[in-house]
Amino acid sequence: MTRFRVGIMDPTIASRPAVDTFSRASYLTAVAAGVDSFWVPDHLNALFPRALWQPKFCGGAKVLPSADAYLEPWTMLGNLAARNRIARRALGVSVTDTGRRNPAVTAQAAATMSLLTRGRFILGIGTGEREGNEPYGVEWTKPVARFEEAMATIRALWDSNGELVNRDSPYFPLRNAIFDLPSYRGRWPEIWIAGHGPRMLRATGRYADGFFPAFAHTPQEYAQRLDVVRSAASDAGRDPMAITPALWIPVVPGRKSGDVDEALESEVIKAGALIAPDDFYARHGAQHPLGVGFTGAQDILPQDWDEQTALSYIKAIPQSLLREMYLCGTPGDIVDRAAEWRDCGVRHLVVVNMGPLQRSLRRGVATVPSFYRVVRGIKKL
């Protein structure tokens, strides 16, 4: 069996006193913990309501002035690549966007990162979300079709051997396009696709080196989707077992169960559940606060909600839903939960600590040792 691997995602939100103070500390701590990969997100703004980013709701707001102040990911990755020469961890973007990023530019950025990291870069990629496109004037119709064309474009450029590329496409036509960056030792960066729906799962099988969904779903649903990915890979003449089964999931750790219960009652942690789809709520006997059939992260637009509106949406979120959506509990509990994902096919688990988003800054900071105990425990699975 392939060794189980673990990665950490850093939020890369501008902090104080330097904008990258927390990101540098996060990277160095991750390296010391022996993680296999380190990831940065690609967002222009947060996926939860900014009206709740206040010290009375979130301890982290006392040290991070804005939850929407995301640092540009490719710039951060270049900075990390310079620091990563000794540690030699895999670096990844989790995940970049085929809506607002032209695929030729993404192909160039990923190839550059692969050269800088000596082949240790992973291109996490997906359709993106409405919140990172529509408010900025980027077209948000047919995101999956746009994604498929973007993937075909990236592969066409990488496979061109420096020859002129001409390709018809409704979104990204190529006319005597040149791509002459070399691959690293004959290998292009691995592409990990954040696929969830049937069409995206098939695209993952056709194009991806890794299957990299996020929540919310169960380990058993993951196994079913992985089967679809592998079937699509076989249909495309690819080796289905060469696709890395990965997963991105948030962690809410605590030294004891009471600490976790308190964290799950915090407004910002509860608000994170708004990006789950309505069918996930239905399993817990609830309706999504944004309405029947709401699709979740892909379509949420929380930027203009006021405080009372945001609070009204989160007040009825069942704690059972939060406990299924997040990996939460004591370090031992969480490692046991991670083992369930392993048993359903996951081989690379990328985690992010949600603990600092609870009301108490002191309790949030206190989750960090527990989080790294989780990381070390997962590495032993």
Question: What is this entry, summarized?
Answer:
It comes from Mycolicibacterium fortuitum. By secondary structure, the chain is of the alpha/beta class. The protein is built from 13 helices and eleven strands.
Describe this structure in words.
It comes from Mycolicibacterium fortuitum. Keywords: Oxidoreductase. The chain is an alpha/beta fold. The chain has 13 helices and eleven strands. The strands form two sheets. Strands 1-2-3-4-7-8-9-11 form an eight-stranded parallel barrel, surrounded by six helices. The radius of gyration is 20 Å and the shape is globular.
Write the layout of secondary structure elements.
Layout: E1 5-9, H1 21-32, E2 37-40, H2 73-87, E3 90-97, H3 103-116, E4 121-126, H4 143-158, E5 165-167, E6 174-177, E7 190-193, H5 198-207, E8 210-211, H6 219-235, E9 244-253, H7 257-264, H8 267-271, H9 278-282, H10 307-314, H11 319-325, E10 327-329, H12 331-343, E11 348-353, H13 361-379
Parallel strand pairs: 1-2, 1-11, 2-3, 3-4, 4-7, 7-8, 8-9, 9-10, 9-11
Antiparallel strand pairs: 5-6
Helix pairs in contact: 3-4, 4-5, 5-6, 12-13
Protein name: Photosystem I reaction center subunit VIII
Organism: Mycolicibacterium fortuitum (Mycobacterium fortuitum)
Pfam family, one: Bac_luciferase
